Amino acid sequence: MDRARQEQRSQAGSSLIEMLISTMIMSLVSSALLGLLMLNDRAAARVSDKTDCINNARTVIERVGRDVRMARSLGDVYGGDLITGGGGMRTQGSNTFPSATDPLYGASQAPPQGWPSQSSPASTMWPSPPWTLTNTCLVAQVPIFYANPTNSMDPSNGWPTMIPQGAGNPPTVCPQDNVETHVYMVVADPDQVNHSGEYQLEMAALPGYPVQEAGAPQNLLYNPANVITQPRVLLKGIVGPIDTSSGLPKVFQYLNKIDGTGTPQDSVSSATVPNFTGVVMNYEIKVQNQMQAPQVMAFKTEVFLRNNALATTTGQPSTVTPTLSPTP
Fold this sequence. Notes:
Helices cover 20% and strands 27% of the residues. By secondary structure, the chain is an alpha+beta fold. It has one domain. The strands form 5 sheets. Strands 1, 6, 9, 10, 13, 14, 15 and 16 form an 8-stranded antiparallel β-sheet that branches.
């Protein structure tokens, strides 16, 4: 038995001190790996939040840019008609919507679903119309195209529609472009407890004149009652750039095509609406991240109207058929 005990004691093994040292080494290695994992998680969250912010801003920029490029004018294309020196008539346009001469809304008419508003809190409700082109309000009127879903071969498909002469209140004095009005408004975030000093960009659509199928007046291809007028939130977390004079974000600015300096303007006057064909968009957006302090990302772009109806209008169409000279 003594010999067996001696052989048993001579077998290799780990002492208590060796086990403690091994445990300490494993703890240090585990702590280092855990720190690396936490740093990796923070970096991944930071990249993910920035990516989401970039994607949201890009989506909004493309949305607003598409409307501006398609727009017939900035503000209200139905602004007052003016008699030119040659006896022709042109539309002046207006920097506010709706203007007093708007055939759809100029006599205090309301959209079928009512004017855009917010129920609560009152401090973030949309202001009552008319709305003016400013740093926090952009009005773009896009054409309503003829689209017959039951007849893809309808020759009128894809053509802009018109408001007939004498329609509306006040009635049109000549056929007018039929447009849907898209209003972009910057308002304070309703949750000022958790998002103090932040703003959000909202958009509302105001319908145009109804479009009927040719030969079937009872079939409405464009029904104003189907247009949802209540605001939709497009972008949150806007914190600037802040206008020092008003204390509000300077999101929209306007470019005058006859201004040689190209200086963006904060507002537009009714007398110069036809000269404004470009919009500058500026966004400073707070990137929220629970694992670190919030960051701010800035975005800026310029977009121009492709066909400004006010800038290209020279008068009513001539009733005289032009004489074509033979090609030499």
